[in-house]
Design goal:
The protein is mainly beta and 77 residues long. Helices cover 0% and strands 64% of the residues.
């Protein structure tokens, strides 16, 4: 799956991580958090990941880009 953000960066989502291709041709890869497989895009450039084990009763979580990592922000309802 692919999505572009407001700055023109193209984001490519795969189960193992998220790759960003910036307008200046810079490429960066953000791996899926340990124990998670990425599933699909949420709002904006958030992604939904499915965990190997539930956390607080939830298997699916929303992650957002924070620097060079994906940060869990809340359950995916």
């Amino acid at each position: 799956m692919r999505r572009k953000d407001a700055e023109g960066t193209e984001w490519v989502l795969e189960p193992g991580g998220l790759t960003a291709f910036a307008a200046d041709a810079t490429r960066r890869f953000l791996p899926a958090p340990p124990g998670y497989t990425l599933s699909h895009f949420g709002e904006g450039i958030t992604v939904v990941g499915r965990g190997e084990e539930p956390v607080d009763g939830w298997w699916d979580w929303i992650f957002e880009v924070e620097g060079d990592a994906l940060r869990r922000v809340g359950p995916a309802y």
